[in-house]
Amino acid sequence: MSLEFRSLQPQEYLRKHIEAGSRPDGRKLTERRPISISSGHIKSADGSSIVRQGNTTVVCGIKLELAKPTAENPEQGFIVPNVTIPAMCNPGFKSGPPSAEAQALSTFIKEVISSSGCVDLRDLCPVAGRSAWVLYLDVICLDHDGNLRDAAVAALMAALGSLKLPTVVFDSEMEQISVTKDLSCLPMNSRAVSCSFCVFDQDLVADPTWEEETNAQSAVTLVILDSGDICLTEQTGASALSGDTFQTAVSCAANQAKEIQRALDSLR
Fold it and tell me: What is the mean pLDDT of each run of 10 residues along the chain (268 residues)?
C-alpha cells in the first residue's frame, strides 16, 4: 500500500493491515513493543525513572518536600502527580497551557495511585499532625509515539521504587523537627502496570502507536496489580466494546502485565 493511500485514508490503511492480522510496524495485533526501564539516574531528583516503549519515551522525577498534614488527615502525607506533554514530543501538540491529553493523563495517574494502594499515605507522615512528606511527581513525555498511559504508569512505579526518604526526628521538648541524612526506601504495598488496547471493529490492537490511537474507534486500559488483580479499567471512544472483546482484552493484559513486571523486577 502506497504512502499516498496511507496519508489520505489512514483508517482504511490500518483496517486492511488489521484484517490481514498484522500492523504497519510488523507486529502482530496483540504484540507489544519492546520496553526498557531504568531508575535512579536523575541526580537532581529524589526518585526518578526513564521508560522507553518503542518510540515513546517518558521520564518521571520525584521531589520531596515537608509540609504540615491536613486537619482532616493528620496522619497522611501527599502525592501530587503532574503530566507534561511538550510540543517537542509530537507534531500534534502545541506550546501553551496543558493539553486535554496531559490533564486526562494526570487524572489517570492519580486514579492509579489511589486504586492500586501502591503507597500508604500514612507512610509519608513521620510525625502525625506536625510533619508529612509531599511527593511532587512529574511525568514528562520526551517522545510521543502512542500509548503514554502504559509508559507513564511504568515510569511511576519505577520512580517510586527508587525513592528514599530521609529520617525525620521530632524533639518533643523543643518542639522542633529535624531531617537527618539517614535514608530508607519508600514502602510499597503493591505495584501496578497498565495495559492498553485500541479497538478497530472489535479487533484489539495492543500497545498502540500514535497513528493507531488517532484512528481507532475506541480504547481500553486495564491496570493490573502484581497480585494479578485488576484495580482500574477505563474505556474511551464512541464505540462500546462487546463482552467477548473485553474478555479477550483481560486475557491479553494478564499475560502482557507479566512482561512489564519482569522489566520492573530487573531494577531491584
Answer: 70 86 92 96 95 97 96 96 95 88 96 97 94 97 97 98 91 78 92 96 93 93 96 87 91 95 89
DSSP β-bridge partners for residue 23: none
Set out the domains of the chain in order of their start, with CATH numbers. Answer: 26-265 (3.30.230.70)
- DSSP 8-state class, residue 87: G
The predicted structure's pLDDT at residue 11? 80
Q: Which residues of 33-63 are buried (b: 16+ CB within 10 A; e: fewer)?
A: bebebebbebeebbbbbbbbbbebbbbbbbe
Q: Phi, psi (5° rounding) for residue 185?
A: -65, 145
Phi and psi torsions of 263, nearest 5°: -65, -40
Alpha helices in the chain (DSSP H): 3-8, 10-19, 100-116, 148-162, 210-215, 243-265
Residue 75 C-alpha cell reads as: 496522619
State the Cα–Cα distance between residues 244 and 251, nearest whole angstrom. Answer: 11
- Longest CA–CA span in the chain (Å) reads 78
Give the start-end residues of each E strand in the chain.
35-39, 47-53, 56-67, 78-84, 132-143, 164-171, 176-185, 192-200, 203-206, 218-225, 230-237
What is the model's pTM?
Answer: 0.94
User: First and final CA of the chain: distance in angstroms?
Assistant: 45
